[in-house]
Amino acid sequence: KRNRAITARRQHLKSVMLQIAATELEKEESRRESEKQNYLSEHCPPLHIPGSMSEVQVPGGQPPTHSPTQELCKQLHAKIDAAEEEKYDMEVKVQKSSKELEDMNQKLFDLRGKFKRPPLRRVRMSADAMLKALLGSKHKVCMDLRANLKQVKKEDTEKERDLRDVGDWRKNIEEKSGMEGRKKMFESES
């Protein structure tokens, strides 16, 4: 019974949240539409185009030399020309900067190519020789660490002697294999 109440509550909350979200989406959509209308009204004023040449009134009764439509077209062409010039200038700047970038990359590649890194080899040097090479005449400390070590002689233990005396393990296996080997084993134990 409790689980049903919890799931019913969840479903109710979910539906309420969906309703709120739907209203918020509608508000957002209407706000965007109003912003779009405001932007268009600011940047694109409505055009007033007369329907024919007879509607154009010129003082003095003479025929008009240019209609408002032609004037509008001239203005639009002038704006298009300005935009095209700006576009061309931008393209030239981009081409110039990309060419400079390619040149710099080529110079960088050439510089890397001239100075090849040699493969490093291991050099066996004592600590004294290394310090002498690095410090030169200032080097006075002796770094011969092996000279200060004590010599320790290892004593042979019985186990090691037995292993040494056994020799090759294969010979042992061959001797113990078969009935004769087992017989020798029993004889040696008793």
Automatic annotation (TrEMBL):
<dbReference type="InterPro" id="IPR001978">
    <property type="entry name" value="Troponin"/>
</dbReference>
<feature type="coiled-coil region">
    <location>
        <begin position="73"/>
        <end position="114"/>
    </location>
</feature>
<keyword id="KW-0007">Acetylation</keyword>
<dbReference type="GO" id="GO:0060048">
    <property type="term" value="P:cardiac muscle contraction"/>
</dbReference>
<comment type="similarity">
    <text>Belongs to the troponin I family.</text>
</comment>
<dbReference type="Pfam" id="PF00992">
    <property type="entry name" value="Troponin"/>
</dbReference>
<keyword id="KW-0514">Muscle protein</keyword>
<dbReference type="GO" id="GO:0003009">
    <property type="term" value="P:skeletal muscle contraction"/>
</dbReference>
<feature type="region of interest" description="Disordered">
    <location>
        <begin position="24"/>
        <end position="46"/>
    </location>
</feature>
<dbReference type="GO" id="GO:0003779">
    <property type="term" value="F:actin binding"/>
</dbReference>
<comment type="subunit">
    <text>Binds to actin and tropomyosin.</text>
</comment>
<keyword id="KW-0175">Coiled coil</keyword>
<keyword id="KW-0009">Actin-binding</keyword>
<dbReference type="GO" id="GO:0005634">
    <property type="term" value="C:nucleus"/>
</dbReference>
<dbReference type="GO" id="GO:0005861">
    <property type="term" value="C:troponin complex"/>
</dbReference>
<dbReference type="GO" id="GO:0045893">
    <property type="term" value="P:positive regulation of DNA-templated transcription"/>
</dbReference>
<dbReference type="InterPro" id="IPR050875">
    <property type="entry name" value="Troponin_I"/>
</dbReference>
<dbReference type="InterPro" id="IPR038077">
    <property type="entry name" value="Troponin_sf"/>
</dbReference>
<comment type="function">
    <text>Troponin I is the inhibitory subunit of troponin, the thin filament regulatory complex which confers calcium-sensitivity to striated muscle actomyosin ATPase activity.</text>
</comment>
<protein>
    <recommendedName>
        <fullName>Troponin I, fast skeletal muscle</fullName>
    </recommendedName>
</protein>
<dbReference type="GO" id="GO:0031014">
    <property type="term" value="F:troponin T binding"/>
</dbReference>
<feature type="compositionally biased region" description="Basic and acidic residues">
    <location>
        <begin position="24"/>
        <end position="36"/>
    </location>
</feature>
